[in-house]
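wait is this the right file?? whatever heres the structure
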């Protein structure tokens, strides 16, 4: 997995200047679907390059990431709403979206509602899947869209701030952007704790049913 992240990081850094904000938005759109691209590898390196005189700006990186995340999450919502649960469950297993994951996301959605959509943008696994159950459960798209937009804005802002802060202290990176992989591991560990706490809490009612 680490090797794959290195390859993705190499490709991204090599094409970032040419791809610009469109590349950031496109990858963040994919990240908000079932494609397992870590947002921690997309936003911080771009923000790192948002230095005076550089191609990117902090605000531009945040907006590109936020819009991309919103687009990808909206696609997931309408896929769940238009296809329906039976077809999603039937087809999901071919793309790593098993029934257990769908049910987990459904419990999260039913338990937390629109605020859960907002906080889901900060959590692994749930962040990628939350659009499907909200669509299946026919949550008002206006609330879903607003919660997704605000949550994505917060998440992208945090990641961009980290990248910009590291960019202003290049000695921390020892001259190599690959140190962002270490940042990914730290952030992922913190998010894993949040994921365990909140998702396990949302899953407790099902445990007592069995």
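ok assuming it is, sequence goes like this
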């Amino acid at each position: 997995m680490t090797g794959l992240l290195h390859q993705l990081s190499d490709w991204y850094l090599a094409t970032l200047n040419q791809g610009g904000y469109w590349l950031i938005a496109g990858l963040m759109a994919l990240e908000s679907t079932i494609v397992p691209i870590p947002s921690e590898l997309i936003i911080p390196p771009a923000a790192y390059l948002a230095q005076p005189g550089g191609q990117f700006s902090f605000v531009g990186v945040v907006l590109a990431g936020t819009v991309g995340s919103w687009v990808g999450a909206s696609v997931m919502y309408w896929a769940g709403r238009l296809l329906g649960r039976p077809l999603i469950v039937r087809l999901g297993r071919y793309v790593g979206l098993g029934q257990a994951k769908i049910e987990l996301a459904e419990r999260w959605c039913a338990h937390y509602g629109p605020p859960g959509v907002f906080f889901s943008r900060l959590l692994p696994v749930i962040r990628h899947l939350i659009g499907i159950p909200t669509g299946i459960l026919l949550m008002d798209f206006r609330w879903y869209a607003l919660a997704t937009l605000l949550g994505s804005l917060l998440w992208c802002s945090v990641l961009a701030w980290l990248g910009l802060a590291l960019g202003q202290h290049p000695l921390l990176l020892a001259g190599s952007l690959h140190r962002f992989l270490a940042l990914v591991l730290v952030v992922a560990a913190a998010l894993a704790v949040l994921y365990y706490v909140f998702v396990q809490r949302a899953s407790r009612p099902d445990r007592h049913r069995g």
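The chain has one domain: 2-203. so i think its the right one actually
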